[in-house]
Structure of Protein kinase domain-containing protein:
Amino acid sequence: MEGFQNSAIVVLLSVIIFLSINHSEQLQSSQGQTLLRIPRLLSNPSVLSTWNSSTDFCSIDPTLSVTVVCYEDTITQLHIIGNKGSSLLPKNFSMESFVTTLVALPTLKVLTLSSLGLWGSLPGKIARLSSLEILNISANFLYDTIPGELSSLSTLQSLALDDNMFSGELPLWLGSLPVLSVLSLKKNMFNGTLPNSLSNLENLRVLSLSHNYFRGEVPDFSRLTNLQVLELEDNDLGTKFPQLGNKLVTLVLSKNKFRDGLPAELSSYYQLERVDLSNNNFVGPFPPSLLALPSVTYLNVASNKFTGMLFENQSCSDQLKFVDLSFNLLTGHLPKCLHPKKTVVSDGNCLETVDDRSQNPVSFCHNEALAVGVIPQLKSREGRSSKTAIIALGVIGGVVGAVALVALVFLLVRKVNTPKAIKKHPTRLILEDASAGYPSKLLQDARYISQTMRLGALDLPAYRSFSLEEIEEATNNFESSAFIGESSHGQMYKGRLKDGSCVVIRCLKMKRSYSTQTFMHQIELISKLRHRHLASALGHCFECYLDDSSVSRIFLLFEHVSNGNLRSWVAERHARQKLNWTQRLAAAIGVAKGMQFLHTGIVPGVYSNNLKITDVQLDQNLVAKISSYNLPLLAEITGQFPSAQAGRLTSAGSKDPARANQEAKADIYDFGIILLEIIVGRPLQSRNEVDAMKDQLQAAIASDAATRRSMVDRAVQRGSSIQSVKTTMEICMRCLNKNPVDRPSVEDVLWNLQFAAQSQSNEVSPSSPGQFNHQLRLSIL
Ligand SMILES: *[C@@H]1O[C@H](CO)[C@@H](O)[C@H](O)[C@H]1NC(C)=O
Ligand SMILES: *[C@@H]1O[C@H](CO)[C@@H](O)[C@H](O)[C@H]1NC(C)=O
Ligand SMILES: *[C@@H]1O[C@H](CO)[C@@H](O)[C@H](O)[C@H]1NC(C)=O
Ligand SMILES: *[C@@H]1O[C@H](CO)[C@@H](O)[C@H](O)[C@H]1NC(C)=O
Ligand SMILES: *[C@@H]1O[C@H](CO)[C@@H](O)[C@H](O)[C@H]1NC(C)=O
């Protein structure tokens, strides 16, 4: 008992010390009162459920959903991000009262209110937050026009109203916000022409107006020398190609009415990485120099009327990953440099290619080029070519690269406020990058530490895309000795990369025709599945059909952990080779942490992982890693799951919290079975065995210490502390509760296991070096 109290005190003290070092600010009580009114006004969203009158707002840990940042005794940043796809707040919600409450926090500089179901018009009085620098109210249901009062926000740097129902024309005064650098109004119902005043925004770095109803010519942006991202997709803009500064990195003009030829200067935009001119009416010669832009990775000019002859000896940029020239009037030969490691789509032209079926006769292009007529859609293609050689590092490679870069930006900037971890392609890089431009004062205020930082550096290479050649080399061309298993989704191979590291390669075969873009979101999620206690994702590779570049197979590469599975270490070896009690607890904690990461470390969380002790692998240092978990890709591919499962997979992005919680509790139960086996040190192969063992354990818990200990694997009985065994058994029983609601949260599980480990190291091995002990205390914090 004394051990128990001692360690409890140690833990408590550490917590207190930690809190007092890091969170000494005391919030003005009036500001605290204001925050406390927010949950009720928003109909008590689950993300705010932990706020109550004793919450110390300046010291709550920032999460992906909620972050409060204080400076001295006032609040400077408030981020509340609800669950994706949340529905309208109820009828009694009032945007007016909500904003009236918010403006009682006049020190706010950064305000994010995303995916909360807010509806109504945006009250002008929000401008009373006169220090606002960043305002982000995306993914809600706000309508009407942007209130004129916002024009008084002279410090506003970033205005994001994406994915709402705002309408009307863009106000002229937007052009007079002196320091505006990000204007993002995607997916609204704005109409009218773009005001010329926008061309005064010299600090503008990101202008994102995609998916609205804008029409008319784009103003002259040649003075916007800082503009890096211009996205105008899916409007009615045109016909003249916009005048732009040459610092542009992303230019998206697709799905508009641009017609006139491309300006020669375009070839001098040396920073251009992503160019999408597809689905317009562009005419005139296609400048092959676009292929050779030094930074270009993505070039899409599909479905226009570009003319001209291509030569095999033309040169292209090394960076180029994806080129779509399809459905134009091009003749000649595809440049050699476009092969082989790039995705190239060229159907519907008059090129001389291997697969002539996808091309028109040259006369067609000539006639069409001469005529100013309509080009008949030429989508009919005969059967699928069996050549499947082209690898799409493609767009996705770019995205993943961007993820890595974003992480880098996070590291450099360190204390940037953004709780939003990863966002939609393709502007993410720049949007995040723009945060590097926050004034340094703001950065000092921010105490947010990104998830990346908290997780600590993984000793792994960065996530990346692989080429098919690399995969073939690693598996010796899928040699049978490399084959390690098969599931309904495809085969698994073991492979060795050039650098000598071992990987597991999952090969998923497509049953239907999808473009690589379809998987962008899933790949983004997968690229985040990296944690000390997971067999982490290392990369992917697309194999595409040559004719329509749809995906034929996806390869996913994971860390290969090779020191035996957890069952072999606790239940199958000779007694002396088994893990001791301390090591077992460490392994259990590892699994729980891996599970916690899957549930809460990434957004959206990954649930229903069907955790099994044989799918937990130990590495050379006996660090436990979950090697099989629910991949957010599988349902997409097969589309043939029983509905419950399919739901769990496909709904990953828009899961309602109650359901997520239910699925989390299923994982907790599976974890309970693993823990049970760790305790008793015997393989539990069937549900009956588990139930029987559970009953025995239940009885033992109620009994005395000796009985309890007799339940523990003989091999480790002597080395285990009484308190530690008791705590472990108790939490195990709670995990195995029949009623999901009564099962503990993963945090609760972790706390108890860490407590058990703490009791163990305090009581049993006072002479052993305090290192383990120390680490535990740290990890509890
Ligand atoms: C709206 O009504 C619900 C119950 O009908 C209540 O829980 C909620 O607090 C109300 N919200 C406001 C802002 O009054
Ligand atoms: C406030 O919430 C915390 C946990 O979030 C809880 O421990 C505490 O009891 C609550 N206090 C009140 C007064 O409800
Ligand atoms: C823009 O939309 C509003 C309603 O949303 C409408 O009243 C107005 O006429 C439209 N303007 C133009 C130029 O289409
Ligand atoms: C490329 O080839 C064409 C003819 O095939 C030739 O006219 C042209 O000069 C060549 N260009 C270069 C840069 O070699
Ligand atoms: C606004 O916030 C949402 C939610 O965090 C985020 O996804 C989005 O990228 C933000 N927009 C900008 C322009 O920063």
